[in-house]
């Protein structure tokens, strides 16, 4: 690969963002012929086709998506530098681009990210939520700094990434007062035959919950399955079923959704990870998050609430 001409790279970046040479021409105030010629030269020098035609528009090739990831970082950093020099010449803003898997509760995501807010530098957080596969694809293209998820890097993903443990905590079960009154037995016996809302099949927590129910010979009635934890909480607030959330956010769930704490257990734990493209974390915000392990300290504060340890009792006795 030849040395990069940053003028060519800038033309490429604008065309990729606008989707066509004509729109890029209007934005850059340069003739379409000039842009087309510079793009052709850029592709020739790099030895890769970066665009392919799709009707009247241009689509990025696989190589083009890779180049765009780096170009985004280069030119967004340049724009940030201009702003800093104009307004705060001695202060640099730290930008954290984080993807949050939709399986992770929003309140948990906030607690995991909260340590970054204590950085001495000014921090700008750009959060995106979505499916893990989509977020890891953006991570590979350097559009994200980290991805927060409840599972380590899937071995089947053809993406270079490294998993960093952020913490773990037990589970707490919640229900509306009306639903709890219909199933007044002690926890977890009250879940036997009761409507329960479960994480989706792709959730790492789903199999652990199912195994726990089997261990205690509890047979709940599945009233719903949800990939999104916020949607599950909304259905729980409506009284559709009992549901579990990480114990680290017990107070927040009770306050936000006006629910009762039915019980809690450390026999099932939910782990949380930060996935990065670097084996050694160097980003100051990611480093602050990984070192703080906020959920580990919160977990010890749940001791004053009803707990159920890992039990071998198989009948529905008072736990």
Could you explain the architecture of this structure?
This protein is an alpha/beta fold and about 325 residues long. The chain is built from twelve helices and eleven strands. Strands 3, 4, 5, 6, 7, 8, 9, 10 and 11 form a nine-stranded mixed β-sheet that branches. A two-stranded antiparallel sheet has the order 1-2. Helix 1 packs across helix 3 (about 30-45). The radius of gyration is 25 Å and the shape is elongated.
Q: Say how many strands there are.
A: 11
> Which geometry do the CA atoms define?
elongated
- Share in helix: 40-55%
Q: Indicate the radius of gyration in whole angstroms.
A: 25 Å
What composes the largest sheet? 9 strands, mixed
CA-CA gap between termini = 67 Å
Structural class: alpha/beta
Q: Identify low-pLDDT runs.
A: 297-319
| SSE order | HHHEEHEHEHEEHEHEHEHEHHE
Number of helices: 12
Whole-number mean pLDDT = 83
Proportion of strand residues? 15-25%
Brief overview:
The chain has 319 residues and is of the alpha/beta class. The chain has twelve helices and eleven strands. Strands 3, 4, 5, 6, 7, 8, 9, 10 and 11 form a nine-stranded mixed β-sheet that branches. A two-stranded antiparallel sheet has the order 1-2.
Name the descriptors:
alpha/beta; elongated; 319 residues; 9-stranded mixed sheet; 11 strands; 25% strand
């Amino acid at each position: 690969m030849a040395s990069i001409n940053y003028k060519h790279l800038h033309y490429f970046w604008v065309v990729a963002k606008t989707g066509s040479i004509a729109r890029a021409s209007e934005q850059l105030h340069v003739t379409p012929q000039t842009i087309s010629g510079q793009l052709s030269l850029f592709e020739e020098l790099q030895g890769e086709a970066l665009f392919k035609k799709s009707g009247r528009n241009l689509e990025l090739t696989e190589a083009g998506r890779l180049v765009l990831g780096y170009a985004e970082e280069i030119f967004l950093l340049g724009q940030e530098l201009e702003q800093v020099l104009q307004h705060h010449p001695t202060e640099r803003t730290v930008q954290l681009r984080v993807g949050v898997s939709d399986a992770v509760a929003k309140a948990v995501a906030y607690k995991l990210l909260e340590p970054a807010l204590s950085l001495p530098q000014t921090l700008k957080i750009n959060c995106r939520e979505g499916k893990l596969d989509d977020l890891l694809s953006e991570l590979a293209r350097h559009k994200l700094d980290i991805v927060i998820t409840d599972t380590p890097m899937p071995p089947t993903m053809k993406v270079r990434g490294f998993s960093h443990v952020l913490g773990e905590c037990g589970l707490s079960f919640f229900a509306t007062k009306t639903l709890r009154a219909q199933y007044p037995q002690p926890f977890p016996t009250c879940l036997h035959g009761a409507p329960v809302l479960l994480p989706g099949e792709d959730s790492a927590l789903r199999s652990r919950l199912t195994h726990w129910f089997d261990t205690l010979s509890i047979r709940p009635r599945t009233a719903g399955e949800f990939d999104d934890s916020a949607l599950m909480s909304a259905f729980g607030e409506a009284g559709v079923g009992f549901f579990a959330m990480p114990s680290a956010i017990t107070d927040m769930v009770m306050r936000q959704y006006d629910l009762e704490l039915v019980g809690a257990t450390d026999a099932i734990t939910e782990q949380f990870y930060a996935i990065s493209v670097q084996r050694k974390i160097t980003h100051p915000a990611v480093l602050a998050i990984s070192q703080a392990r906020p959920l580990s300290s919160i977990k010890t504060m749940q001791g004053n609430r009803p707990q159920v340890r890992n039990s071998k009792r198989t009948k529905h006795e008072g736990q």
